[in-house]
DNA sequence: TTTGGGTCCGAATGAAGTTCGGAACTATAT
DNA sequence: ATATAGTTCCGAACTTCATTCGGACCCAAA
């Protein structure tokens, strides 16, 4: 009997050890980080200082990377969300990443497997602004083509879930 | 000369009117919302109550949707980020969205234009967990196929930029 | 000039974050 | 069994911050 059927488990960043309270705490903070420690304490059956210590530890361990305000892209004048697959000939494109990062329309940059080499998440004012952006991307050396997928509706948009995986 | 060349400008959510201070304030809060109003005031050359009033207004207007903690997916045991294009035969899939939302691996759900009907952003423990997830998606009625793009590296991941668009 | 809306400031108040000392518990070693 | 070290928790004290308030200032419309 093959009791040792080990799946591939990439572990570059060491996973933190978390108990149930840590996970529910992270879940609460991931949906609304403006709650007071006293309020969180009531939900977790803990005192405010105890919650504080846990949050402090989770921050030091890097489980909590930051606290940020979530902005409304449409109200900022960018209602059009698009995913752009970028084809490249060269893999020495990391230099051009700096340029892409500077563009306010670009929210995410990933290198991916599959037909394309890169995947961008971009938010623009309208299709014209998207076209301008694509034109700029095409003008970058090594970027040979793009395929765009315009988001019609977004039904879910959240961060990583702290729910236990096994 | 065609001086009136009007581009398409979708305006479902009314864009808010923001001055320069609002935009820099939003930028600061989008990268770190744990700063005190006094500290923000120093950066903006404003008093703490003035900053408070602006934030309050931006929240009421819905420009600031929430304050959340950003978690590290890898440290939570999900190092593998994948974008999944889902093909569907039927457009009556919105009922199945509720099921997808319950899956902790699924972070984003969009309906998109192009070859596929839906685009998912999912985070899993490993390729095995991804395979299990895909199997579950395939078993949903109306979902005929998927194409997956595994993210090798992520170079940028942020929210909408408050930088002025024109 | 007057009125109203908007934005700002300083001062005061109340709430929340933060620190501290010590108790309770666990695990390991002696 | 007892001792030691490590962890987590609590209540109390302290400090910082958020929030409110009254009034000043500016600008535009009446």
Automatic annotation (TrEMBL), chains A, B:
Gene Ontology biological process terms from the UniProt entry: response to amino acid
Pfam families named in the record: AsnC_trans_reg, HTH_AsnC-type
PROSITE patterns linked to this entry: HTH_ASNC_2
InterPro entries in the record: AsnC-type_HTH_dom, Dimeric_a/b-barrel, Tscrpt_reg_AsnC-like, Tscrpt_reg_AsnC/Lrp_C, WH-like_DNA-bd_sf, WH_DNA-bd_sf
Membrane-spanning ranges: none
Any Gene Ontology CC annotation: cytosol
Molecular-function GO terms, alphabetical: sequence-specific DNA binding
Protein name as catalogued: Transcriptional regulator, AsnC family
Organism of derivation: Consotaella salsifontis
